[in-house]
TrEMBL record:
<protein>
    <submittedName>
        <fullName>Diguanylate cyclase</fullName>
    </submittedName>
</protein>
<feature type="domain" description="EAL">
    <location>
        <begin position="23"/>
        <end position="274"/>
    </location>
</feature>
Amino acid sequence: AKNQGRNAWRYFTPALQIAAEHRSRTSSDLREALVRDQFHLVYQPIVELATGRIRKAEALIRWQHPQRGFISPAEFIPLAEETRLIREIGGWVFERAVEQVAAWQAAYGADFQISVNKSPLQFKGDEDWVGYLVGLGLSGHSIVVEITEGLLLDADEQVSNKLLAFRDAGIQVAIDDFGTGYSSLSYLKKFDIDYLKIDQSFVRNLAPDSSDLVLCEAIVTMAHRLGMQVIAEGVETREQRDLLSAAGCDFAQGYWFAKPLSVADFETMLAKVG
Ligand code: C2E
Ligand code: CA
Ligand code: CA
Ligand code: CA
């Protein structure tokens, strides 16, 4: 209310200031983190529902801050995007994931893939992702790039060219958080997309006769008819898995199968279940 404006302002200023200081400290810490090697990746298995096999994993970044302990990517990735540090962090993630997929292909076969999250800003730089893969003797098919709908909705020439280069190299593309961002689906005709990732919010309350189940079934039908496959995220229960499986969903990931794992734990799991 207007007549409260003055007091409200005075009241909120310190809080805003503290938040701003916290952010600026975090962003200078982020810069340090790269140099001081405070990031690492964990890998969440992606399970093929028809067979139970694990032929893919999603790489997720972790930050162990020396004083503040674990900081969630949900907190620092947006800040890294604002400060443009995301390009360096993203480059680090990509290189690490590529090294890992090389090792896991040697152990588990050449069809093993790692999927990597990429922020829209990473499409603005001139990093040569394809060249990096090829330089290590890996096929493009080793990597799935996860992007969000927003990137495709305002895709300029730079973005389109990168996506075309991915297609030519065999790098696959997944739409992350599918269904949460925008109502337009026209980008599905324009770009070569390999996977739709059903967002956790559609999986959380999945039940027989639920509207979420209808939505999941519709996404699967649409995806398959357009030549795409579907990965469900956030699968936490046997019932969710069974419903998604019956709906024809191709892949799933979530705590029901495994949390994001360290390299050692991932290898232990694969030794058990393949
Ligand atoms: P996302 O790409 O949608 O990743 C899925 C998130 O769901 C991950 O959170 C994962 O740990 C969590 N998750 C997996 N299974 C379950 C489940 O069964 N239940 C629930 N409730 N959650 C589950 P995380 O690792 O905290 O990452 C959060 C977000 O941070 C990611 O969302 C992604 O947008 C971003 N992120 C993480 N790593 C990177 C990265 O290397 N680069 C970029 N650009 N973004 C990243
Ligand atoms: Ca993702
Ligand atoms: Ca997602
Ligand atoms: Ca999500």
